[in-house]
Every structure is written in structure tokens, then in C-alpha cells.
Write a structure and sequence with these properties.
It is a single chain. By secondary structure, the chain is α/β, with parallel strands linked by helices. It folds into three domains: 117 residues, Rossmann fold (3-Layer(aba) Sandwich); 223 residues, ANL, N-terminal domain (Rossmann fold, 3-Layer(aba) Sandwich); 117 residues, ANL, C-terminal domain (GMP Synthetase, Chain A, domain 3, 2-Layer Sandwich). Helix content is 30%, strand content 26%. The protein is built from 14 helices and 25 strands.
Length: 486
């Protein structure tokens, strides 16, 4: 079928180097289309079908695809994108083809294109970042990046042909996208789910001989709360958990139930995971990652000064990466790419440190760091501790300008359904046993009914604009002394 699709796409004029965007729901056809485009040497652009027409219109204008393949179920979204492009006076004339036409025509196509040698240096994909902190960028992923990601995974986890990988993460997310190529290299199978649906995913884990599964924390929380049995099948050897911070509350459940969870650290720019934890399996854990071969990691206290204070245990600095899975640049943004590559290292913008055992501990985004009274405060640490409170479902910790301290720590909280909202004094007392007093928020803002916006990888969107938008919604606020304000 891949040969037929390749031949059909070639007859439609798609050739080596052409960009083809995929506005498709997860399906077998989606996977086959990716492999067909790889065979042609074309560039695949997986679009996030859950984004708005405005967001997608911007990305399409940015990458200028020769063709967009779309699901007929997304016809209204296609129509809105066309309308947005027309309103902007776009010079791009978009060629659209439906997945139905691709499938039906390829079945009867008489000139299939057989596989051959693939140039690993070719640009394979442009994957747009989730935009959790600003405007999305098109990350350029090469064939070599994907190949080395698969090799690295096989070396670290012993991937075998009998593996069956449950793929419920969206294919347009790098965590789902790379699974497709690992399965090809290792000859393993994929059990593909069109979307993450609690009942069906839980059933599949138990009944379909699943050995590997990738989840984000919100997925695992849902499974543990409602459906996943206490005794998992013995063939399930690894649960990969990444995409966002794992709360200590969830960590306690993982340890108590002895789940074979591996925590992962990576990003679109690193072609998915580049550092992982050892499988937990009921052991105490300190949120430390081991870097996967062949990636190199260094932590620099002042990344702007080459060679300054690298990798000393406990010294916080920016996490820098180097290796064959690291992307080559941002599509059409040479200046942005130059700003994040210095001295041969990719500057992630994440803060962390090397622990006494040589593991990598990630603290969060450098731009999110709060400096209050000369003290560095990492929002992820405060958020993790807040999420241990039984009444707190989600949290964003941020810094607010303060004339005395420079910044003061505040938090926006979402309370779990069925729980009373805790007072500021209760929360502060709860935190005082876990973190230093200077890290405790001076004010707590409570969401009434809505939830935080999430990226497709499960990360909470936390740009300054989003925080200001949340604060503008007249949230009820309780300060450190317990006084309620609006």
C-alpha cells in the first residue's frame, strides 16, 4: 500500500524536497502516508488537528506546502483555513486532497513506487512546537535525527521485534511521531488508537499483548483513577511518561503500585526523548534522568560565557545538548536558530543541575525562574509540592513585580471537583513543611470552573500573556494573610 501511495503522490507532482502537510486524524493511512513521503524524499509537516484555523493558517503560510492531505471529517476546519488565508490575502495557492481520495485512488494506482536507498541527510519533517511560551516554530527534523532516535531507543531499552507499542498519543506530536520510525527499525508492531479514550486504552493494555506504551501524566492519572487494574499484565514492560511535570502525588501512586514507569526528558528539538529515568518499579526516586547514548549534556552556570562552571554537582545552570538527534534549525528562522546554537551546543532554555550520582535534574524553563530578594525560585518545584495537596488539581506558579523584593511568588490554582477550596494559610502551612519560606506564594488565585489550557503534549500553557489573561478574569484571590480580594 505504501508503494501505491508513493506512486500516486508522484503522479500528483510530489517530488524530492516538496513539502506536504498532513491535516489528518491518527489512522493507518496517516502512518502509510508518512512512509510514502519518506520514500519520495518529500518533507512531511504533521499539523495539530486540535488547533484553531487561525493557528493552522499561520503555520501553513509559514511552511508553504505543495499539498495538504486532509480528513473529510475535518472539512469544516479546512474551509475555515481557506477563509483565513483569503482574509490575509495569502499568495499561497493551496492544493488540497482528501484522505478518501488518497486511499481510493492508491488502491487502483498502476504505477507503484518501490523502496530504495534514503539519504539520511535529507530534511524529513517540519514539526511545529506546541507554543507553550510563545509563537510556535517549525522544527527541522532530518532522516538522520529519526534514525538515531530509534537506534538510541533500541540500545537503551532493548527493543525487539515482538514488542507491541500502544500508540494513543497524537502522531503530530513528536512523542507519537518517533514511535512510527522506531517500529520500522526494530520490526516491532504498533497498536494504533485514533485518540486517547480511557476505556479503550485500558482494555487494550490488558488484552492486546501491549509491551510498551507512551503517556503524558494526565493520561496516566485518568487510567489510575478509573480503569487500569491493580495487577497489570506481565508483558507490559515499560510505561514511558513525559511531556510535562509529574506531580509527587502521581509519583506516590506509581511507586505504591510498582508500575514499570520510565520518566522521560526531551523536546521537539531533540527529536523526542534524550534522557530517561531508570524504571521505577516501587523504588524511591529523586527525579533524576540518565542521558541516552549518543547525546551529550552539559549544564552551564552562565551559558553566555563559554567554558564557565560546567557540570559541577548541584550547580544550577542552563541545560545544553549536543548529538545526532538534535535538530538542525527552525524553518525560515535562521536568526532564531543561531541564537540557540552556540559553540556547537543547543541551548534548551531549561534549567537543571547534575546530581551527586551524575544524573540530570530538570527544574523548568529559564524564563520562568523567579528572583525574589536575590533568591532563585523555580516554579516547577513549588507547583509539584502544591499538587501534593489533596484538593489541588492543577497549578501555575509565577513571579509578580514587587517594589521591595523585585518579584513576589504567586500561584493560580484549580481545585478538584468535590473538594472545598483551601485557605491561603492552610496552603502556606502545607508548603512550609516541604520548601523554604521564601518560595511560598504570597497570594493564591483560584479558577472558578474553567481549566488551564494545555499543549498537545500535556504541558500547561504558561506564557506571560496567558497568565495575564487568567488574572484578568476576576479570579478570587486570597493573600498570604488570608484576606480575600477580587
Amino acid at each position: 500500500m505504501v508503494s501505491n501511495i508513493s506512486g500516486l503522490l508522484r503522479s500528483w507532482g510530489i517530488k524530492k524536497g516538496d513539502r506536504v502537510a498532513l491535516l489528518l486524524n491518527s489512522s493507518e493511512l496517516y502512518v502509510m502516508a508518512i512512509h510514502a513521503l519518506t520514500r519520495l524524499g518529500a518533507v512531511t509537516i504533521p499539523l495539530n488537528v486540535r488547533q484553531s484555523s487561525s493557528e493552522l493558517s499561520w503555520q501553513i503560510s509559514d511552511c508553504e506546502p505543495s499539498l495538504i492531505l486532509y480528513d473529510s471529517a475535518l472539512a469544516d476546519l479546512k474551509k475555515d483555513i481557506d477563509k483565513k488565508n483569503g482574509e490575509k490575502g495569502s499568495r499561497i495557492k493551496i492544493q488540497w486532497k482528501s484522505a478518501d481520495e488518497l486511499k481510493e485512488s492508491s488502491i487502483y494506482h498502476s504505477e507503484p513506487m518501490e523502496g530504495g536507498t534514503i539519504d539520511t541527510s535529507l530534511l524529513h519533517s517540519i514539526i511545529y512546537t506546541s507554543g507553550s511560551t510563545g509563537t510556535p516554530k517549525g522544527v527541522e527534523i532530518t532522516v538522520s535525527n529519526l534514525l538515531w532516535n530509534a537506534i538510541s531507543f533500541g540500545i537503551r531499552h532493548g527493543a525487539i521485534a515482538s514488542d507491541r507499542w500502544l500508540l494513543a498519543m497524537p502522531i503530530f506530536h513528536v512523542g507519537g511521531y518517533t514511535v512510527i520510525f522506531r517500529s520500522v527499525l526494530h520490526g516491532s508492531g504498533i497498536v494504533l488508537h485514533p485518540k486517547f479514550e480511557l476505556t479503550e486504552v485500558s482494555r487494550s493494555i490488558v488484552q492486546d499483548g501491549i509491551t510498551l506504551v507512551s503517556l503524558v501524566p494526565t493520561m496516566l492519572v485518568g487510567l489510575l483513577e478509573k480503569l487500569l487494574p491493580d495487577h497489570l499484565p506481565s508483558n507490559l514492560r515499560l510505561i514511558f511518561l513525559g511531556g510535562s511535570n509529574v506531580s509527587r502525588q502521581l509519583m506516590h501512586q506509581i511507586i505504591e503500585r510498582r508500575l514499570p514507569v520510565v520518566l522521560t526528558y526531551g523536546m521537539t528539538e531533540s527529536c523526542s526523548q534524550i534522557a530517561i529515568s531508570d524504571p521505577l518499579r516501587g523504588e524511591a526516586y529523586n527525579y533524576s534522568y540518565q542521558v541516552m547514548f549518543p547525546t551529550s549534556v552539559t549544564v552551564r552556570k552562565n551559558a553566555g560565557e563559554e567554558g564557565f562552571a560546567t557540570n559541577r554537582p548541584g550547580i544550577v545552570g542552563e541545560i545544553l545538548l549536543r548529538g545526532p538527534t538534535i535538530f538542525g534549525g527552525y524553518w525560515g528562522k535562521r536568526r532564531d536558530a543561531l541564537s540557540v546554537f552556540k559553540g556547537g551546543w543547543f541551548h534548551t532554555g531549561d534549567l537543571g543541575y547534575i546530581d551527586s550520582q551524575g544524573g540530570l535534574v530538570v527544574l523548568g524553563r529559564e524564563n520562568d525562574m523567579i528572583i525574589s530578594g536575590g533568591e532563585n525560585i523555580y516554579p516547577m518545584e513549588v507547583e509539584s509540592n502544591l499538587l501534593e495537596h489533596e484538593a489541588i488539581e492543577d497549578a501555575i506558579v509565577f513571579g509578580k513585580d514587587d517594589p521591595k523584593w523585585g518579584q513576589r511568588v504567586e500561584a493560580i490554582l484549580k481545585v478538584k471537583e468535590g473538594f472545598n477550596r483551601p485557605s491561603a494559610s492552610e496552603l502556606s502551612l502545607f508548603l512550609r513543611e516541604k520548601i523554604g519560606s521564601y518560595k511560598i506564594p504570597k497570594a493564591y488565585h483560584f479558577l472558578a470552573s474553567s481549566s488551564f489550557s494545555k499543549t498537545q503534549s500535556g504541558k500547561t500553557k504558561r506564557s506571560r500573556e496567558i497568565i495575564e489573561e487568567l488574572l484578568s478574569k476576576n479570579l478570587e484571590c486570597t493573600n498570604h494573610e488570608g484576606t480575600a480580594t477580587r
